[in-house]
User: Fold this.
Amino acid sequence: MISATSVVQSLLSGMAEGVNYSLYCLGLAFVFGIVRIINLAHGEFLVLGGYIAYWLLVKWGVNPLLALPLAAAMAGVAAFVSYRVFLQRIRTSSELNTLILTFGLGIFLANLYLQLWTADIRNIGVDWMEQPLSFFGIYVSVGEILTILISLAVVFGLYFFLTRSRTGMAIRVTAIDRDAAALAGINVERVDLVAFTIGGLLAGVGGPLLGMLAHISPGAGLHITVKAFILTVLAGVGSIPGLLVAGMILGVGEALTVTFINASYRELFGFALFIAILVIRPSGLFGRRL
Assistant:
């Protein structure tokens, strides 16, 4: 018999996981919404941020939270170089080319990580962050609370950047109508480069959080990319707050699947939800029709 406390614990854990999911997928959803590139190397950019934080912790004892800016910067640099060297040259010919190229880039980065850090699973552990807190029989760690706050700050920070800054407004105009943006004097190629770089920065922030809550490994990027793609489809293009809701739907659904059915069906829930939303509402729950 499953107790009410277990159900509540599952609901809260699922919501917390969902908030972090929204951060993991934010970069991919942002790039797809602005540049119309499905970045299949998104997960590898995120894993790069995680390895940077892990390396700083192991080598110099740097707290992973303090390593977030450098992790984000390194992933942003990787995204910047990838776009300038590869994607900018081929994206005008065919959208399929960018899909194939980012897929190959992801495979290259995963094998590079394998050579640099081996296939061992790494966890970014800090003792004080693993301390449990109890609220009426519901347990949560200090690290989980901090990662939720960071995820919310990044998601809403991006939202306010897009709605309140001149650069953000230029990005939004370009996403809505590239030709009109170009006629208005906006350098759309520069906007694409900035948007793809921001996508890398966002992925880099998620890497250390993934390492603190779960683990990182050279092959973890593919799993993150698939999860991010599911959430992007579920939320729909053009709705950053919608990603939070979509993330919590996925997180709570997975948690309840583990509680009431079996842990082996956890990933199946996400794929079933993905197929259902494509059939019932292809534009997503909160997105606009393309």
Notes: Strands lie at 132-135, 138-141. The mean pLDDT is 91.
